[in-house]
Amino acid sequence: MDSIDRFFKKAGTLLHRERFNSELEEEMSFHREQKEKELREAGVAPEAAHRAAAREFGNPTRLKEQSYEVMGFRFETVWQDLHFALRQLRRSPGFTLTAVLMLALGIGASVAIFAFVDAALIRPLPYKDPTRLIDVNERAKMFPRSNLSYQDYLDWKKMNKVFTAMEAYTGAGYLMNTPSGVEPVPGARVSAGFFRVLGVTPILGRDFYDGEDLPGAADTVMVTYETWQARFGGRKDIIGQTVKLDGTPNTIVGVLPASFQFAPRGKAEFWATLHTLNSCEKRRSCHNLYGVARLKDGVTVQMALADMTSIAKQLEVQYPGSNRDQSASVMPLSEEIVGEVRPILLVLLGGAALLLVIACVNVSSLLLVRSEARKREIAVRGALGASPARLVRQFITEALLLVIAGGSLGLLCAYGAMQVLMRLISKDMLSNMPYLGGIGLNVHVVAFACVISLLAAALFALAPVMRLPLAQLRDGLTDGGRNSAGTFWRRFGANLVVLELAVAVVLLVGAGLLGKSFYKLLHVELGFQPDHLATVQIVLPETTYGKDPQAVAVYRQILARVSSLPGVKSAALTTTLPVSGNGNTNWIRFVGKPYNGEHNEVNQREVSSDYFKTLQAKLVKGRFFTDDEDASKPQVTIINKALARLYFPGEDPIGKKFGDTELTPKSLREIVGVVDDVKEGSLDSEIWPAEYDPANQNTDTYVSLVVRTSQEEKLVLPALVAAIHGIDPGIGAIDEITLPQRINDSQTAYLHRSSAWLVGGFAALALLLGVVGLYGVIAYSVSQRTREIGVRMALGAPQSSVYRMVLTEAGWLTGVGIVAGLLCSIAVATLMRKLLFGIHSWDVPTLAAVALLLGASALLASYFPARRAASVNPVEALRAE
Amino acid sequence: MTKKSDLMPGTLDMMILKTLTRGPQHGYGIALSIKRASDEVLTVEEGSLYPALQRLLLQSWVKAEWRSTETNRRARYYTLTAAGRRQLGVEQSQFETMIAAIGRVMQDA
After folding, report:
1. Which terminus of chain B is less hemmed in, N or C, by CB atoms within 10 Å?
2. Across the interface, do A63 and B31 touch by the CB < 8 Å criterion?
3. pTM value?
């Protein structure tokens, strides 16, 4: 109550300052006049009475100020502080510019990275109650998270007691009939309740009905908002219209909201139901779906995992053939969506934070040096009556000013960095990370910027305040205190610089390890020659090429046409390109080997006869296919070395046969060749056993064309697409790209590259700032010791001993910093093991190189002050005192 | 030069409040009555009354209004409020306790 009353009184004074002053003035002059009158009446001469009255009254200006201070707010003085601080900063533009730039750098880097962390890891997924959404899948020996079989999905959905709903989704590719021809478009097939389990409702039309995903239901699709806008002009009457996908008319029933995103199927434009089962979905042993479910209230992820595992066990008993060793994988949906980028983002955030630490340490040591230089000024202000609180406030004001300038510039830099980083992410990659779409300076990000800025400001205000024991203000007036001050600064500043160097070492080691991992990743043994390879995806319309002989015929035609293109040396087809991912597996059983129902899981690829020749993968044994080995000839296969090693140790596999788990006669194949291990999985994955079957014996309507060129592989891409369309414009030809480019753009390479470059950038800046910091400390220490050096030299110390003295000091600091940094970096590198590839966290060459680099830079940074010290003129140094 | 005795800290406010118990008064009048009542011992720097009066105004212990003096001059008159009267009681008893304590110490010595 009282404080409110006081506030209003103060506010009133503020608003009517003129009146307050004039009334006070009037009151005071009344007082003096009365006094004067009284004195004159007592017989004092008018002149003397006037003077006496004024003397007795006191200094009216000061009294008015005091009165105003009682009745006014504090900010008048804040304004003065601000004014003074601005003047101070303007007076040393070098210091101000350096400090602001360093802060902007540190804050900008941290804020930019934090924006990504916020978008990916902090902001909730745009679904209803997203933390209750669960990713449910199967688990097999080689796949910790394997696809879900349709039949298993139906059983899991029915039998579970932990989910309010369980739905399934899978990707799809459609050939869409447009006025300009056939266009391949990405899509997805989902169970009917998929959008309901996410809590997404269409903005136009309706959601899928329950049961709309069952065989026999009508062909209906929903479209994304972007597709609605781009392909249908955002027309409201689109509901009920049909769109021809793969030659089949589908009725559009709904439009998804603009905010809808589903990272696992980020590119999908058309969302259909699972109502037409493909051949895979009819078999329990075939896995092609993913599950998503919503936890019941009170159910934890662990409980759900336990329930699903026990259901999987029951199914294993019930269907031993298909479900052997098929367990369950249950984790939060967010884990599936952002799990992969989390460690990288955290490492980057850590790197940015370390950079910020270095920047802050540098700025505070600059402030410390300045506070040394300003000791006299502070002492004078103290002597003239400034209270300690007021002096402290002056430092706080200056710190805040610096941080506001640095912070705003930092925010600008962060915004720019975000734009640049977003542009560096390929469109393809971005469609798999739709959560990055909303990146920008949102509330979280700005709040983060404010918090780190405030922390920095607190540090900057504290540093000089701690340095100035205010009780000893008076000492500052006598300049004799210089030597002890120098000692303090040397000790404290030295600690700071050791910290800085240690942090720089950590960042450099991190960058070194990541860079080396990336190099190793790009130079990993692929088992083939990726250069001069170009590829394009071919999608045959089922309506024209649904039957195997039709497909075989058109593939032969395509290969013949493409091979005759100028610059093409050879051409081949495969169902899955190398370096795409392990998967698309087959369970095999060997004729004549004991079998206990285990799943011998191997990568299965259908390739054309010239595939290995085109890839330039080495034949180890046996022979390659011939083009006429089609359905009319005995079934053959080529295996990789890994399969031979695992299942035929010490045996010759050529001539041996294997088939499916039941050894069905029509599944039997004879091994005719062994080929070198071609990297099928991502760059950092293991080599799996693999079988390569002739494409002519087992066709697919979705294949990749690979050609080896004699010229630059990029130049042949348009001709490839044209050649395919020249045969039949109804065939989809998409994603034309060179293989080196494809590998370079792969998620693994991308993530490793971006982390290596970003941490490398941080490390370079850290090195720069650290070395500048060291230079600052040494240079200041030399300037403080000019007299000492002068005396030494006057007493006959040679220049070399001065060099030695300065360099020893720098050497100690650097040495301690490097050793501490190396120890920390081994610990840090162990934490980021996950991001390293083919390299230990204590990689000695990297550690040695970093130590050497930092040592050399530090030597350079201290050489200049040392030279200045050695060239001190003793006479001048002593005279300067 | 006449030697001015320094006031004990905080006593100026109390004396102003006390003076105002005798009725509304302007700044000059307050200074005059403190001087007279203390037989000219307590001659404060007269101007320092005004910051003190602002302090009392802020705490709502006194009220101020402009009135005419007997000589028809405009002057700001200060009036004690009920809260001010209570505050005076508190300060006076604290002051007396302290004076008594100091007195005892000085006698014992």
Report:
1. N
2. no
3. 0.78
Closest Cβ opposite residue B76 in set A10, A23, A34: A23
Mean pLDDT, residues A773-793: 82
pLDDT at A73: 66
Does the ipTM exceed 0.90? no
Q: What is the pLDDT of residue A468?
A: 60
Calculate what percentage of chain A has a pLDDT beyond 70. 95
C-alpha distance from B20 to closest chain A C-alpha (Å): 17
- For helices A844-870 and A482-522, the axis angle rounded to 10 degrees is 150
Burial of A636 (0-12, 13-18, 19+ CB in 10 A): buried
Q: Which two tokens stand for residue A23?
A: 């009334």
Taking the Cβ of residue A27 and every Cβ of chain B, the question of whether any pair is shorter than 8 Å is answered with yes
Centroid of chain to Cα A153? 34
| CA A281 – CA A168 distance, rounded (Å) | 12
Chain A nearest CA to B102, separation (Å):
30
Q: What angle do CA A608, A613, A618 make, to 5 degrees?
A: 120
First to last CA, chain B: 32
Partner B contacted by A72 (CB < 8 A): no
Rg, Å, chain A Cα set = 38
Q: Token pair of A835, please?
A: 């991001």
**How far does the CA of residue A4 sit from the closest CA of chain B (Å)?**
11
pLDDT of res. A269: 95
| pLDDT tens digits along B17-47 | 999 998 898 888 888 888 888 877 776 678 8
Closest partner CB to B58 (pick from A31, A60, A70): A70
Of B8, B13, B22, the closest CA to residue B57 belongs to B13
The pLDDT tens digits of the residues spanning A275-290 come to: 998 888 999 989 999 9
Q: Which amino acid is at A673?
A: G
Digit-coded pLDDT (tens) for A593-633: 999 888 899 999 999 999 999 999 999 999 999 999 988 99
Query: Does the beta carbon of B55 lie under 8 angstroms from any beta carbon of chain A?
Result: yes
Q: Of A325, A279, A340, A294, give the one whose Cα is nearest residue A128.
A: A294
Which uninterrupted H or E stretch holds A4?
helix A2-15
Task: Nearest chain A residue to B49 by CA: give it.
Answer: A63
Spatial CA neighbour of A125 closest among A262, A270, A292: A262
d(CA A606, CA A16): 89
Strands A220-223 and A270-273: antiparallel
A-to-B residue pairs, Cβ atoms closer than 8 angstroms: 68
Q: Considering only A108-122, A141-155, A482-496, A720-734, which range has the smallest mean pLDDT?
A: A482-496
- DSSP bridge pairs for A537: A704, A734
Instruction: Give me the residue label for tokens 């309901």.
Output: A196
Read off the amino acid at residue A406. Answer: G
